[in-house]
Amino acid sequence: GCDALVLLNSTSNNKAEKEAIPNLSLVGFDVIDEVKTQLEKSCPGTASCADIVALAARDSVSYQFQKPMWEVLNGRRDGKISSQSEALANIPSHFSSFSILKQNFSRKGLTIHDLVVLSGSHTIGVGHYKFFSNRLYNFTGKGDSDPSLN
């Protein structure tokens, strides 16, 4: 997430966001850890993990163009408490219709524009077929598609 809570590991007292079912397919934690380790050697206490994640996302897209594709403002602070239950309560379900997603985002003070931008950013990575195939081919169990899909 934007405050790097997904990078925190579980403790004996707390299951972290990283272990929430929607996050189990995330990878690359070791890369962020290594970047943070190297930055701490050169500039202790300067870069947050949240900034590193934002910069890594930008750079992974920009790499093919051999130049940064957008400016990333730094100054994010890392969160300190990561909760599996918070992730489960706040990450939208892959079964949610557009109407439900609009309602959920609106409750958080976010707009349809925010919904599109945040959803689009999640196309970087892997979309697991099992999570959306029923909406394409067997929505009601009769070999049909979800009518809300264009």
From TrEMBL:
Entries under InterPro entries matching the protein: Haem_peroxidase, Haem_peroxidase_sf, Peroxidase_pln, Peroxidases_heam-ligand_BS
Pfam families reported for this sequence: peroxidase
Family label: Belongs to the peroxidase family. Ascorbate peroxidase subfamily.
Residues bound to heme b: 122
Domain Plant heme peroxidase family profile stretches: 1-150
Binding residues for Ca(2+) 1: 1, 3, 17
Gene Ontology biological-process annotations: response to oxidative stress
Textual note on the cofactor: Binds 2 calcium ions per subunit. Binds 1 heme b (iron(II)-protoporphyrin IX) group per subunit.
Taxonomic source organism: Coptis chinensis
Keywords: Calcium, Heme, Iron, Metal-binding, Oxidoreductase, Peroxidase
UniProt keyword Heme, yes or no: yes
Catalytic activity: 2 a phenolic donor + H2O2 = 2 a phenolic radical donor + 2 H2O
Record protein name field: Plant heme peroxidase family profile domain-containing protein
UniProt-recorded Gene Ontology molecular function terms: heme binding; lactoperoxidase activity; metal ion binding
Keyword match Secreted: no
Residues reported to bind substrate: 92
Phylogenetic placement of the source organism: Eukaryota, Viridiplantae, Streptophyta, Embryophyta, Tracheophyta
Cofactor needs: Ca(2+); heme b
Binding site for Ca(2+) 2: 123
